[in-house]
Amino acid sequence: MTNPNTSKLLSVATDAARQAADVLMRYYRDGVQMRQKTGGNRTYDLVSDADETSEAVIAKCIRQTYPDHELLGEESLSDGDASAEHLWVIDPLDGTNNFAHRVPHFAISIAYYHQGRPVVGVVLNPVRDELFTAIKDQGAQFNGQAIVTPPAVSLDQVLIGCGFYYDRGDMMKRTLSAIEEFFDRHIHGIRRWGTASLDFCSVAQGHFGGFFEYQLSPWDFAAGQLIVQESGCLITTAKGDELPMQKTSVLAAHPDIYDAMLQITRRHHP
């Protein structure tokens, strides 16, 4: 598939996200038992049947149309080949802690990559039925309406979004140090919503001037990366490098304040 059929890819991704949304909303209404994902004292690193069933539904939907494509996801698909020519990157439930505490702010994130580059991205908040989509070189949309580059801004005119990885040692301290410096630059405020895919969409829409986090996995940013880029905003690592298909820091920002944000996130980078 030298020239991917982007309309078909988007249709499959959107259908998969809608099917996964039905799964998540059933668990959200009826309740689900959350389990600790990793050992030790990290009781805040959670997983549930909702995550795993959602991922299975997405995988089945994609494989029905593209049986030869590689899948990389947060749960049972974590061993997928990130270097595959045709790669789907899946987060079946982004914002698990929000979901566990019945905060109506979580999402399904699905992206298709061709030869290492994002081509299609879909992020869906099933509670609010908010659908964000993007196709490379064709722009980004929110519920079917084009997302355009937000108006010009300066750092002292914006809200900044941030995230904290599960590490609560040096990485959290450095994140807090960066936040302190952002406040010294007179930003309007910090928001930490706990769902990176939706945070990237907030940057694309101009609700946030920028967003940063010092460690995210590919399924956290794959779809959001394309939505940010297609909105006219910028996204790199928090050091200013191109995003790799592996765990990395991420900085997304309006082009007017990207350089100012990068100076801060780079200075405090773990």
Question: What can you tell me about this protein's structure?
Answer:
This protein is an alpha+beta fold. Helix content is 35%, strand content 27%. The protein contains seven helices and 14 strands. The chain has helices at residues 6-30, 49-65, 96-100, 170-184, 196-205, 218-230, 258-267; strands at 34-36, 46-48, 70-73, 86-94, 107-114, 117-125, 130-135, 139-142, 145-147, 159-162, 189-191, 210-216, 234-236, 248-253. Strands 3-4-5-6-7-8-9 form a seven-stranded mixed β-sheet, sandwiched between helices. A hairpin with a 2-residue loop joins β8 (139-142) and β9 (145-147). α1 (6-30) packs antiparallel against α2 and α4 crosses α7 (258-267). 44% of the residues are buried. Residues 42-46 have low confidence and may be disordered.
Short note summarizing the structure:
With 270 residues, the protein is α+β, with helices and mostly antiparallel strands. It is built from seven helices and 14 strands.
